[in-house]
Amino acid sequence: MDSLTFGAPRFLRHLMDPSSKKIPVMEFEVSKVLEELNLTMDQFIDLCILSGCDYCDSIRGIGGQTALKLIRQHGSIEHILENINKERYQIPEDWPYQEARRLFKEPSVHSTDEQLELKWTAPDEEGLISFLVNENGFNSDRITKAIEKIKAAKNKSSQGRLESFFKPVVGTSVPVKRKETKCILGSAKPVIKLKAYSMESSFQFRPKVIASIGLPTLDLGSRQSMLFSGSFCFGT
Length: 236
Description:
Elements: H1 2-5, E1 10-13, E2 26-29, H2 30-37, H3 41-51, H4 64-74, H5 77-83, H6 97-105, H7 125-135, H8 140-154, E3 192-198, E4 208-215, E5 231-233
Parallel strand pairs: 3-5
Antiparallel strand pairs: 1-2, 3-4
Helix pairs in contact: 3-4, 4-5, 7-8
């Protein structure tokens, strides 16, 4: 969700979730979010910092609803800190919220003029495990499986298309056209009689004619005549 805080105009959530979960994809548009919350972009950034972000600690006891209430009352984190009950809410020491705010507003990005040379090499397994598991407490099995996926993906010749994540898969083949048949004209056929049968009162099937229905042929003139035939049988 940090992409909205960084200023992305739209954000799609659950796009890459497995189809088995059947979770609908949610679209967030930052302009509509700001309009519904009645906040400016600067206030929205402060709201996200108060609610909890990856770049600094949050104030214990302040969640999303309380943060929104405080932002609406005071307008910014600075004014909140001036008016907050410091006995009820513990503010972290040396709280770098201003640096987090600057990171959201002025992220370090590369311009389009710069040419980046990306080299896809084998993953540094020892370095990843040391950084993620030993230093940051990630699960060892999870990281090992992720590394194996990276190694397996590197051996693939091409990247999968976006359509492969959705069902049904968009087909690229051209549908086969039905063969055209020629009609041979002929004279009208005689009436076809349909017979219906009934059952005798016994376990053995003994059909008996109880009705005879006549259907005329359909004369299409310049087209081929069509015949109707069939029978009705009642029994077990």
